[in-house]
Structure formats: C-alpha cells, structure tokens
Amino acid sequence: MLAALGRSAARRRWAVVIGTVVFVALAGFWGAGAAGTFGGGAGFDDPGSESAEANAMLAGPLGRHAIDVVVMYTSPVSTVDDPAFEAAVATAAERIPASSVARLETYWSTGSPDLVSADRRSTYVAIQLVGNTEEENVVRYQQTIKDRLAVDGFDVRYGGLVPVNDQVNALTGRDLVRAELVSVPILLVLLVIVFRSLVAAALPLVVGTVVAVGSLAVLRVVGMFYPVSTFSINVVTLLGLGLAIDYGLIVVNRFREELASGRTVDEAVERTMAAAGRTVTFSGLAIAVTMLGLVIFPSRFLISMAVAIISVVVFGVVAVLVLLPALLRFAGHRINSLRLPLPRFGRRDAERVPVREGGWYRTAMAIMRRPVAVTAGLSLVLLAAGAPVLGAQWGRPSDWVLPAGADSRVVDDMLDNDFVRDPTAVVTAVVRMPAAADGTQSVAALEEFAARLDQVPGVDGASITGTEGDLARLTLGYGMDPQSAAAAAMVAGLRAQVPPQGATVWFTNYPVSLVDMLSMLGDRLPWLVAYIAAVSLAVLFLAFGSVLVPLLSLLLTVLSLAAAFGTIALVFQYGVLSDVLGFVPEGFMDANIPMLILVITFGLAMDYQVFTLSRIRESWVATSDPVESVAVGIQQSARIISSAALLFVVVVGGFMLSDITFMMMIGVGLVIAVVVDATIVRGLLMPATMRLLGARAWWAPAPLARWWRRWGVPESHGSPPVASGAAILPGGRVSASAE
Q1: CA-CA-CA-CA torsion for 20, 25, 30, 31, nearest 10 degrees?
Q2: What is the protein's membrane topology class (predicted)?
Q3: CA distances from 301 to 171, 226, 228, 274, 699 (A)
C-alpha cells in the first residue's frame, strides 16, 4: 500500500506540489490566528475533584470571593500619605469599566494597613473580575485593564493569577518565533553536513517547514472542537517540525541508497516508500497511539496536548508519505547535486565505507564480546543518573514559571517581603447547610465552624463572606508558600474538620487544587504506564513478530527516561545549571511535564527502535547470524539515527531558550532522553543485550508466531539495497551504505 501511495504521488507530482503550495499559503493565513482561539487558561486542574466542584458552585449565584488582579503602585519620592499619591491611584482605578469588576479595593477605600508596604511607598489595587472562569477573565483583563492603569512617575506592575496567564501567553508566542529563528538555520547546516548535498539537505527541511506551518492550521481546527490549552502551540509546532525533519531524513537517506544500488528513479521511490515509509508510518502510529494515553488524565492541559499532538503527527506522516515522494521524483538522480566540498573525517567518506570497516560495526562487535559487563555497567549508570527524581517535590505552574523580572514575580516577591499579607493567598470553603444559610442557627453553626478552621495550622483568619440559599462561602487566609508541604498539610487539616451537623463542605483555590491535581496524577500514572507498555509491546510485536525484542526495548526506554527525569530534578529542583539556563530554581517542579515527556519519549524511542531493529532484522533474515546481524544493523542505522536525533535535539532544544520554566523542563527532558536513547541505549546497550538474547531475540510462542505470519506487518523487502562502494561479506551478505 505504501509503495503504491509513493508511486501515485510520484506520478502526480505536479498536482501534489501545487496543492502543497496552495495549502501552505492558506494554512499560513488561517493558522496565524490559532493562538487567539485557545483562550487564556492552562487547564491543569482535575475537573472531577472537590476543588472543581466548589468552583462550579461559586460560579452560580453564591459567587467567588478572590482577588484576580493585583496592580502594584510604587513611588520613588512620595508615600501613600501624600494626597497626590491617592489622587493618582484613584484616577487610574476610574479607568476600569464597572462592568468588568465585581470588587475593587484600595488602601483608601478600606483603610486597611495590610495594603501598604512597610516603607509606605507602595500600595496595590486589588481587583476581582466578574467572570467565573480563568479563560474569560484573562480576555476581560486584556481588553479592559491591561496597560490602562499606568501613572506618570510611578512604577506600575500587574500580578495575580490572571496577569500570570496573560504574561505566560505573551512569552509563549515570542519563544516560538525565537526558537524557530535559531533552529531552522542550524538544521539546514546540519542537513548539509549529513548529506553533503544542498538538494538532499533541502528536502527534509521543506517537508518540515510545510508541517510546521500546517500545524498551526491544524491546531486552529482542533481548537474549534476542543478547548486547547494555550501552552500547546509551542510544543506541537516544534514537535511537528522535529518529527517531519526526522522522517524526511530517513526517507531521503533510503532513496539515495536505492539509487546507489542501480535502481531507476521510479523503482527507488517505490521501494523507499515501502521500506522507509513503513518506518515513518509505524513511528507516527506509535507516537499517536502513545499520546492517546494522556486522555487517562482528565485535565484539559494533558488532554488538549494529546489531541493536538496526535493531529499534528498524523498530518506530518501524511505530508511525508505524499509530498516527499513527489519531491524525490522531481529530484531523481539530482538528489546528490550541489555537493559541497566539506572536509572529510576519518580515512574515507562514510558513504563509501564497507560495513565491516565502520566504527559502529567495530564498536558493536567489541561490546558483544563483553555483553554482561556492558549491560550491567551502563544500566547502573543510567539508574544512578535517575536517582535524584526519587526526592522530587511537585508543584503546578504559577508566577514562578516566569523570568525573575516579570511583573507577576516582582509583585509576588513584594507581597511576600514588604506587605503584611498577600490578598491572593486565600482558601475558599463552600458549605451546603441543611437549612437557609443566613438563618440564625445556620449562621451560628457557620461561625463556630469558621473558628475551628481558623485553628488549623497555617490558616490566618476565617470568616463568612457570603450566603445564598442553603450555600455559604467562607474565606480563609494563609501565609505559607502554596506549593510547600506545609500548605498540603494545611489542606489535609481543613478537610479533617467536621462540618456543621447535616452540612457538606468543599474547599478550593490554589493550595487545594494543587493537592487535588497531584492526587489525580498519582492515581492515574500507573494506568498510563500500563497503557504505554501495552502499546509499545503490541506495536513492536506487529513489526517484528518477537515477544522478547519488545520487552527488551521497553526496558531500554525506561533507562533513557530514568536519566532524563533525574536530570530534570537536578536542574529544576536543585538548581544545577540554573545560571546557564537563566532561571531561579524554586525547589520543586511542575508535575504535569513528566507525563508529557513520558509519552513523547516512548513514541520517539519506538521510532528509533523500529528503524534500528528493521536493519538488524534485514540482516538476520539474510544471514541467520545473531552476532553479525546486530553489528551490521547497528552500523547501517547508527549514522542515520544519530543524525535524526541530533536534528530533533536542535528543534526541541528551542524549548531551552524559553523564558517559561516548564517549557525549559520539556526541552531539557526531551534532549537528555533522545541523546541517551540514540547513543548509549541504541549504540551500546542494544548490541550488548541483543547478544545476550542471541537467536532467541526473534522468538515467539508458536501460536503468536502463526498469528504474526498471517497478520503481522513485516518489512516489504527482505534485503537492504546494495549501495555503491558496498562490500560483499562471506556467505553472500551485503555490506550496505554506512548511511
């Protein structure tokens, strides 16, 4: 089927290319507005949690009682006792439409000293917006408050949950542009080095660019049917670009091999799509099905990431399978044109080195002479690298994900250090009473309950702030870091309090939603792991008909992930290299990001596994030599896998340029996982462990073996192409190109 698809695309190459140009033009126009359709929220909360249920009640007639925006005013010359200070702030506050504000408090309207800094040169306007959801309040803030409260001679900064989301959104778009401006030129240079030909180098980049532009259009379409998280645009666009270039690299490399073996252009296109197209399809299938595991988590952030990435990966695979055959047919034998006189490394150009003289072949043979020592030693090293994650402290994004000079972080630091209390640091209790909440008996019971809540360690004041029907709202202050263990203990203490007789209580706001989010992630993580393991085993069994190779690949990927998660903990919790990356470590990490890294890494690992094992399997079928086939397969795949991994690292490394801390986490985690998987695992651990398995590596129980022979998806061609300069090994074995 893939061969036929490639043949059809090649025959209709003009229609394919013209259609692609039209699509890119339309997608660029349509996709340019994608970010504006995603709303302002991140969607980290568990919608089925107690805190979410409380939020739903507060969205009704009872209403919220929380500060969404803190506008901080600081004067270098005057204090709040100066009438001019009061007049300036009052004039600024009058610019806010009354229809946008549910509550607005200033030092002069409340008389509270809590709203004045210790040096009396700073004060803030505390604003509760009328919306009930994070998304609608971000839009309202952007339209009616943001940048409208400036006062000449004052330093004005915006803090609070809503400005945090707005500031993260602004940085997200800027980070994407910067990452692409840095990565695309580097990608072109690396592709030229890999292929030594401008024509060959250009094709994967063209496909990658089409996918990157098309990804925005795809995201916008997805956003019409599902509320996509604002943070998905960077992850999906860069991931789509990286995967498309990786796939293009594999296909172009195979096409050059087929031409070098003496086949015609049409034959080369057909055989390339049958072999490399199979690898691309399996990889895309593996990543898409693996990403589907994120729907196990009910949070909008993870579900929207899954939906968006699956959509873009499928789009990327289709682009590679349809557009690239047309481009290859146009290129034909000119695929090697415009060769550059780059310096050669080693005795000869790697393209001309016979398999047995290749460095990876010799390395694999050396490793297979000591398989036990290599397997044990490298496994211990990777497990030790993962040890720091055992002491991980998990949090969720807030102002700490922003750079140190961002408004929200400055405001938060000022509230912590210069003011008596932070007005945003509250917990809300929603109490359903057995009778009217404003009745005499109900009020007395609620006051007694509030007094008990106020005695819970960490709570700083508890009072009744609203009633509606049989519902009452209690507002509790606190002073500790909401991400801390003390805050979690406070939440546990609050929930341990017995509500008034016949009443039911729900708690919400930041510390509570964090506890609920971590509980949701922890409870469902084992199901995600089981799902990913099942998908990995099933996909690799379909590809190779073995039960031991999939198990081995699963264990090797776990080692890659251990190194990645350990590095994340060292960098983002303990602060190693924080100065280099340019962020301030907070002593905890975003708990959502490891889930994303887990599924992406498993999908990518299966990509590299399918490609490497396909080459090993080709040699095994031709020779039945378990040692020689591994060394030949590693040599044939190592260079292209290393190149693909390097190109992918360049793309996802763009996350490390982000000013948003959890985007850096994604970059660091994926870079470490991919580098370890493509070098230590594929190049060293795989030959060692395959040597331990020997011929048993391709074993399956008889019933499964019969099933696979009928329903499996084996390689379309039983032998690799004979490349130019290849050597014929003993027994008629072919030494294909080192590429």
Answers
A1: 70
A2: Multi-pass membrane protein
A3: 18, 11, 7, 37, 41
pLDDT per position as a tens digit, 372-382: 999 999 999 99
Tell me the sheet residues that pair with 7: none
pTM (2 decimals)?
A: 0.86
Distance CA 124, CA 66 (A): 15
Quick check: 589 pLDDT over 60? Answer: yes
For residues 126 and 310, give the distance between their C-alpha atoms in angstroms, rounded to a whole number: 41
Whole-angstrom distance, CA of residue 303 vs CA of residue 312: 14
Q: Which among 29-38, 201-210, 223-232 has the top mean pLDDT?
A: 201-210
Sheet of strand 426-432, all strands in order from the earlier edge strand to the far edge: 459-468, 471-478, 426-432, 504-508
Extract the tokens encoding 605. Answer: 């690992």
Distance, in Å, from the CA atom of 718 to the CA atom of 618, rounded to the nearest integer, reads: 6
Q: pLDDT tens across 251-276, in order?
A: 888 888 888 888 888 888 888 888 77
State the DSSP string of 460-499.
Answer: EEEEEEEEETTEEEEEEEE-S-TTSHHHHHHHHHHHHSPP
DSSP 557-573: HHHHHHHHHHHHIIIII
Query: Six-digit token pair at 715?
Result: 């390689």
Structure tokens that stand for 722 in this block: 């004979």
- Domain-by-domain residue ranges, the chain? 68-159, 406-515
CATH code of the domain occupying 406-515:
3.30.70
- Per-residue CA distances from 729 to 107, 357, 625, 632, 736 (Å): 86, 12, 12, 11, 10
d(CA 361, CA 617): 15
Q: Both tokens of residue 584?
A: 């301030």
What count of other Cβ atoms lies within 10 Å of the Cβ of residue 457?
Answer: 10
Sign of the CA dihedral running 715, 717, 718, 724 = negative
Q: Are 474 and 442 in contact (CB under 8 A)?
A: no
Contact 159, 411 (CB under 8 A): yes
**Which residues sit opposite 431 in a β-bridge?**
472, 505
- Which is nearest to 673 in space by CA: 595, 547, 598, 564? 564
Residue 494: per-residue pLDDT: 96
Whether the CB-CB separation of 149 and 72 falls below 8 Å is answered with: no
pLDDT above 70 as % of the chain: 93
